[in-house]
Write a structure and sequence with these properties.
- The chain folds into 2 domains: 129 residues, HAD superfamily/HAD-like (Rossmann fold); 94 residues, no CATH class.
- The protein is α/β, with parallel strands linked by helices.
- Helix 1 packs antiparallel against helix 4, helix 5 packs parallel to helix 7 and helix 8 packs across helix 9.
- It contains 9 helices and 6 strands; from the N terminus they run βααααααβαβαβαββ.
- Strands 3-2-1-4-5-6 form a 6-stranded parallel sheet, sandwiched between helices.
- Helix 7 links the parallel strand 2 and strand 3.
- The two termini are 21 Å apart.
- The longest helix has 20 residues.
Length: 242
């Protein structure tokens, strides 16, 4: 089946893992408290945050206990999250690299301020623009699927050290379509693109994501970039670069 669409992960695929973990995450953590002072969550988002907090409250995770005990002089962790404590909880989620929608949304807005103030410039692998341009010349469309919010995805390509790369992408998907290790997520993306799964080639650095996309019927390539985490044995094609 002819490939008509490229679906690309970001972290460890088109951008180094170090950029995300050493630049973006620390920046969000540094600014999370000041940003949330004047931020209003929708009622739906606040319920989602409370549900997630309850899971952690009953998890007995030592790092969760330590994080909140330090901030509570009465030596008791609150059973319900207050608006005044949400920044502390989000800081905990950042440390855990939790793929949580409301957190990703807030991070995207914080990063937007950082990009626009020129405090942040994104690092994208040098072989990416040529690959994207060549794909378009071959009649393929390029799309992004990442756990970061769509807003955060756009910013990475808009403010890259290689220039504004947004012209090379047709659409962006985040975990609103589902988790990246779930077959159904890839089927939803194919449906949105009005394409057969077999007409889509998914690029990632994580075998479990590759497995889910493959089961959905997509073709898959694993990227082995410098600094990527070792993966369990698999039969997918491995590329060191585009």
């Amino acid at each position: 089946m002819q490939i008509k669409h490229n679906l690309l992960d970001i972290e460890g695929t088109t951008a180094p893992i170090t950029f995300v973990h050493e630049i973006l995450f620390p920046y969000a953590k540094k600014h999370i408290h000041s940003f949330l002072k004047n931020y209003q969550f929708s009622e739906e988002k606040w319920k989602e945050i409370q549900i997630e907090y309850q899971k952690d409250f009953f998890s007995n995770d030592p790092s969760f206990i330590q994080k909140f005990m330090v901030e509570n002089s009465n030596d008791q962790i609150p059973k319900e999250l207050s608006i005044n404590m949400v920044s502390l909880y989000f800081e905990y989620l950042i440390e855990k690299d939790r793929k949580f929608g409301p957190l990703k949304e807030v991070q995207g807005k914080i990063w937007k301020e950082g990009y626009e103030s020129h405090e942040i410039k994104s690092t994208v692998y040098e072989d990416v623009p040529k690959f994207l341009k060549q794909s378009i010349q071959e009649g393929k469309q390029n799309h992004v699927y990442s756990s970061g919010s769509v807003e955060a995805q756009v910013l990475i390509y808009q403010y890259s050290v290689l220039g504004d790369l947004r012209e090379y992408f047709t659409s962006y998907f985040d975990t609103a379509v589902g988790g990246k290790r779930e077959k159904e997520s890839y089927l939803r993306i194919a449906n949105t693109l009005s394409a057969l799964p077999s007409e889509i080639r998914f690029f990632t650095d994580i075998v479990e994501e590759a497995d889910a996309a493959s089961v959905a019927g997509m073709q898959v390539v694993i990227l082995n970039r410098p600094g990527n985490l070792p993966q369990k044995p698999h039969s997918f094609p491995i590329w060191d670069h585009f």
